[in-house]
Design goal:
Length: about 475
């Protein structure tokens, strides 16, 4: 009886919130931005921007990077954006990964002055959240690739007083910026740590964020650019937390989703907010174009990025989400291997390849007729030519060199449906990503002839 009462009240809540539901913003502007991939492997760097567009009030946002295997946090900070401000940074490697910026925006913690570039500030990535946690590696090399997200916590209450009479709006404004005052507000006794004061410093989020990312390889002369996935209406109330707080995150979404399939909208209600986010990202197929693997005669190569941004909420035990292997995922993260080499949490997928003329070349759920094609990590790379030098890659080296379209299908051999309170059945997996294509010709007549490009996936979605 108590369960029925709970479900009835939750359904009533959803009806009251009919205009507020998580959705994928097709215009690319939203409250949360999910960047499918970052890397500092080899000579690659990842550059990105976060834009608070023209005439938008100042905002407080959470920036959080996740390593690619188990989705553990490797860097997080609060970013305070002035009205109409664009903030850029570059993730780069070397001995260990760091994030470097030449922009004046306030971050907490504050970045340290760069010892390499005058006028730049930087902050290192850390392995503290995964070292000794699982069997997927403890070194900083694991933090060299993954995905990251930017979540608006709310619009800044410009009249909120920080210290010495200075207001929050004055501290954020580029004309009167005082990043030290904002950082001090999170120190013991600071303005944000008084009961109820953190959220009092913010108003409701407006959801007007956009961004872009670039993966560049300077020695090679290649560049791959892509846009993040934007989510609208993640949550309605302000959520201002300290820089190291695990919240807000995608699991804090309001538990209602809205998806449009074939021109028809479907609103669904969920017991947990993370299911609302998974629902709007659920797809049965990811479709894109490819070339490769490369040969001396045909230098084209492709890497496919398939990121499952909500996966760690389902396959890893945490205090907030103690259950494991919940739909839509069917496997728990394997962290018990005696040899110290975790295989992750693997979901079988099927690959179909078509020629430019439309002929089906192969449709298989076996890689090289022996091992299953699986998505085992949170950020997965399926490689036809080692474009991005990923340590998480599955290599399809025995594919014949060709070009055409490639499909990655889910929903068979164990993938579980996600079912809403209303009984709406979502099949597939919550996945995002793109392809990177590279053509390496070397020097032709004294001119470097290397090229790179990227293409966002197209999807098929099924809701019953």
């Amino acid at each position: 009886m108590k369960l029925q009462t709970f479900l009835a009240s939750l359904t009533a809540f959803a009806c009251l919130q009919n205009a507020h539901a998580v959705y994928v913003a097709q215009d690319g502007i939203g409250q949360a931005l999910i960047y499918s991939y970052y890397t500092a492997n080899g000579d690659h760097d990842t550059l990105f921007s976060v834009v608070n567009p023209h005439d938008s009030p100042p905002k407080a946002v959470k920036v959080r990077f996740f390593e690619g295997r188990n989705g553990r946090r490797v860097l997080e900070f609060n970013l305070y954006l002035a009205a109409s401000q664009t903030w850029t940074a570059a993730m780069t490697g070397g001995a260990s990964p760091i994030l470097r910026s030449f922009e004046p925006a306030c971050t907490v913690p504050q970045f340290a002055p760069s010892p390499v570039y005058s006028g730049a500030t930087e902050i290192p990535f850390t392995n503290a959240d995964y070292a000794g946690y699982d069997q997927a590696g403890s070194g900083l090399d694991r933090a060299m690739e993954g995905h990251f997200e930017v979540i608006e916590m709310g619009e800044i209450n410009e009249s909120f007083v920080l210290v010495g009479g200075k207001t929050f709006g004055q501290a954020v404004s580029l004309q009167t910026q005082d990043c030290a005052a904002i950082a001090a507000a999170w120190n013991p006794g600071g303005a944000f740590l008084a009961p109820g004061s953190a959220d009092a410093g913010l108003k409701a989020p407006s959801g007007k964020l956009l961004g872009r990312s670039l993966i560049i390889n300077v020695p090679q002369g290649t560049e791959y650019s892509t846009d993040p996935v934007a989510l609208g209406q993640l949550f309605a109330a302000p959520r201002h937390t300290s820089p190291t707080d695990a919240h807000p995150n995608l699991g804090d979404a309001d538990p209602v989703s809205f998806v449009t399939v074939n021109g028809t909208g479907r609103q669904s209600t969920w017991i947990q907010g993370i299911n609302a986010v998974s629902a709007v990202l659920m797809h049965t197929k990811a479709i894109n174009e490819y070339v490769g693997p490369p040969t001396p005669e045909s230098p084209g190569a492709t890497d496919v990025i398939l990121t499952l941004p909500t996966k760690s909420f389902y396959v890893v035990r945490t205090s907030d989400y103690p259950l494991t292997t919940r739909p839509p995922f069917s496997a728990e993260f394997d962290d018990t291997n005696a040899d110290g080499n975790s295989t992750g949490a693997c979901e079988d997928i099927r690959i179909a390849r078509y020629t430019r003329a439309g002929a089906l070349q192969v449709e298989e759920n076996l890689l090289l007729n022996s091992d299953p094609v699986q998505l085992c990590w949170q950020t997965n790379v399926i490689s036809l030519g080692d474009v991005i030098e990923s340590s998480n890659a599955v290599y399809l080296s025995e594919f014949k060199t060709t070009s055409g379209t490639i499909e990655f299908s889910t929903g068979h051999q164990g993938t579980l449906p996600l079912i809403s309170i209303e009984g709406h059945v979502y099949t597939g997996l919550p996945m995002i990503g793109f392809t990177l294509q590279r053509y390496i010709h070397g020097d032709l007549g004294g001119v470097r002839a290397n090229y790179g490009g990227s293409s966002l996936h197209k999807y098929e979605t099924e809701i019953q």
